[in-house]
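testing teh design pipeline on a random one, pls ignore if ur not involved
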């Protein structure tokens, strides 16, 4: 029987398939290797032609150098990661920082002109990481690899200050709240010849929002005195709420560069005793105990000619005074112009009637309180403004004669009665010691003298205290 022929497959074996693809892979690999070597040789030749060996070395050093590390910012319990700025933004900011940190630069940017640093950040649309500090100092920065050199630029309210240690940031404690933009320049020195030096500029912001700190001018006062409250880290946007058994409504205004101030007049009718006052801003409350001392105000019996009393002290004169004076009691300047010691308005005068005296006229059973002090001196003696301010009233009234009122800011006013002549008009700005008139005996008066009042928001306070000592301490620098 004849043997049948076997079917022979034309399909290549697995071994042949592997050998074929192996050869193709080696061809492609050799081609890629040749291209890589050619590219490398071209790169080296170009570097040598354009920059010499130094250029070539710099390229290899750059390739062997690790990237500039990120910076980690910690403010309280908050954390932020900051990447280094681009070279172009770094160059632009550094040029401006050097200029704003120069000694000849103005202390602060003009309010009418945009801050140059913020202008650059706004133009480049760079938004720095910003964290809020509720206490200070309460901030620190860290690197994965600490730099060999650092330079810190603190840019706050248009002014730039420079420091050269990281510890400077940990100790940085601005005088007032606000946003401080901080730029940190860091440098790392290469440890090996095949590496290059590294540097980076980092930008971040810390918003300081510390709780307000209050200080009272005194904790024990006589009735009729002025209580002054000073506050640090308080801004115009902060709302102060008060709980007190005193007639206590402080209205804070700017005082110097670092503080705000509130004036609290304590009426001479206030009873002696212990009073509490709690001031709350946000989540923080400070409570103070204030002692109003027991003061015995003297009594005075004044004898005035009947025709003078009847002509100047009656219902019509009282109404005139009320109608003319009441509308201006709320006239108040936002800035305190009163500063330093108080000018004696008539040097050499004799104090004849004290503040707060209970006065009876011509044995009348009715009495009234003396709202200021009487300073007796010859007619025509020049009267000087006790401090700087703005004239808000200058007229003749039946009861008080020629009368001048000066607003010194925050509702603090000085009043001058019974003048012979007035030498200022409404709207005049006077400086401490300027002559505003002369002594006379106009209105309800028994002889030439100056009646001087001080008031805050319509409540009279003791002028004698102000003449003896400055009403306010100097603002914090």
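output:
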């Amino acid at each position: 029987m004849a043997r049948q022929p076997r079917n022979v497959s034309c399909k290549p074996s697995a071994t042949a398939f592997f050998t074929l693809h192996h050869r193709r892979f080696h061809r492609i690999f050799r081609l890629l290797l040749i291209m890589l070597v050619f590219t490398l040789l071209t790169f080296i030749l170009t570097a040598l032609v354009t920059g010499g060996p130094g250029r070539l070395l710099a390229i290899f050093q750059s390739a062997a150098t690790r990237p500039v590390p990120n910076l980690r910012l910690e403010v309280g319990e908050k954390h932020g990661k900051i990447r280094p700025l681009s070279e172009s933004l770094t160059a632009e900011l550094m040029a401006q920082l050097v200029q704003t940190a120069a000694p000849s630069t103005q202390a602060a940017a003009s309010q009418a002109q945009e801050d140059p640093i913020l202008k650059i950040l706004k133009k480049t649309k760079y938004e720095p990481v910003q964290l809020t500090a509720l206490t200070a100092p309460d901030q620190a920065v860290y690197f994965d690899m600490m730099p060999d050199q650092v330079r810190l630029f603190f840019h706050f309210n248009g002014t730039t200050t420079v420091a050269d240690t990281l510890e400077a940031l940990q100790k940085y404690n601005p005088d007032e709240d606000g946003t401080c933009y901080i730029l940190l320049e860091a440098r790392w020195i290469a440890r090996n010849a095949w590496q290059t030096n590294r540097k980076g500029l980092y930008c971040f912001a810390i918003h300081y929002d510390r709780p307000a700190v209050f200080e009272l001018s005194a904790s024990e006062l006589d009735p009729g005195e002025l209580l002054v409250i000073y506050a640090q880290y308080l801004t115009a946007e902060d709302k102060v709420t008060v709980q007190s058994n005193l007639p206590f409504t402080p209205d804070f205004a700017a005082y110097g560069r670092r503080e705000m101030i509130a004036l609290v007049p304590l009426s001479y009718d206030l009873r002696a005793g212990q009073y509490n006052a709690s001031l709350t801003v946000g989540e923080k409350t400070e409570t103070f105990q204030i002692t109003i001392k027991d003061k015995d105000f003297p009594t005075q019996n004044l004898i005035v000619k009947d025709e003078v009393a009847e002509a100047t002290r009656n219902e019509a004169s009282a109404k005139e005074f009320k109608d003319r004076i009441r509308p201006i009691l709320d006239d108040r300047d936002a800035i305190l112009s009163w500063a330093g010691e108080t000018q004696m308005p008539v040097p050499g005068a004799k104090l004849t009637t004290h503040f707060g005296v209970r006065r009876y006229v011509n044995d009348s059973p009715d009495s009234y309180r003396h709202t200021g002090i009487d300073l007796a001196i010859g007619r025509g003696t020049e009267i000087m403004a006790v401090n700087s301010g703005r004239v808000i009233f200058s007229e003749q009234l039946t009861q008080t004669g020629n009368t001048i009122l000066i607003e010194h800011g925050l509702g603090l006013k000085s009043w001058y009665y019974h003048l012979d002549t007035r030498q200022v008009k409404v709207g005049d700005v006077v400086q401490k010691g300027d002559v505003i008139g002369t002594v006379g005996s106009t209105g309800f008066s028994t002889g030439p003298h100056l009646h001087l009042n001080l008031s805050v928001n319509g409540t009279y306070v003791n002028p004698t205290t102000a003449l003896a000592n400055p009403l306010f301490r100097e603002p914090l620098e």
